[in-house]
Amino acid sequence: MIVRLLLCFNKKDMCVSAHAKFPCLRQQSRVPFLAAVLLLAGSLQGVAITDAASMFADPAFQAQWQAGEAITRNFWGPLETAQAGQQEFYADAPGKRRLVQYFDKGRMELTNPAGGPVTNGLLATELISGNLQVGDNTFDPHEAPAIPIAGDDDNPGPTYRALHTTASAVLAAAPSSIGANATARVSASGDLSSGAAIPRTANAVYDAVTQHNVSAPFAAYRDKVGLLAIGYAKSEPFGATVKVAGVQRDVVIQVFERRILTYTPTNPDPFKVEMGNIGRHYYQWRSMLNAAAAGAPPVSLAVSVTATSNALPATSARP
Questions:
Q1: Model pTM score
Q2: For labeling, which of 106, 107, 157, 267 is most exposed (least CB within 10 Å)?
């Protein structure tokens, strides 16, 4: 395979990219070394980026971050734990690349820099199905990742892969059962079972679009932050035991199109319902796919992004 190297410059940085699908990378050592690394990864959709962000990649991203954090604390997660902005391959973007930035709780996307809007993607849907969206109607099929959907990073499970396989019944369409408490449980190993009703989880809303009941704590939280931010329910609510800050805790979990919500009744009121770190999980998944395609561990490189001056209106998500 012949890979064309593209050099691009700004006032501070020299960048090297191996393909139009790759982000523009800031030089941190010798250019020949970076070129060799990128040549090995020439068939990838992106590269693994592990540096923390020091800035918002676009003013529209900052506007959306501020709007979300004004609604509820930790809507996106702090900038300090976000990834730097990067260009990812997207078949329907100008030049087949678009600017994205990963936060703990989600991803911001600017597919059309000339006219916006900022979108956020159906990350939960992609992680559970294994179908990586690379265009408006284009998907790359993969195995769903064995990344825990909630709790500490080293929590054994349940995982996105388990929800796609052994526990997939929680994703099946269900009839309306307003007022009924959740009874399903998914173990750390992904086994699905049914037991006693879980207190304070009565279904309050039925999402007819996806044919799932929404537990009352999650329905109230979605009303607060907005449907576009969370999406419609993709599963029935279920109980699980997950490790949080090193301690095993019983929680209730529900999968939505864009985010995964957890309910911990023993938490203080502002934190009883929380968003999972789906942005971090999705970024980890892409890094794993990139490394597997390259046949090597993920490459740690920094991204160079110059914030633009176009003040685009921020919107919550694509329909």
A1: 0.76
A2: 267
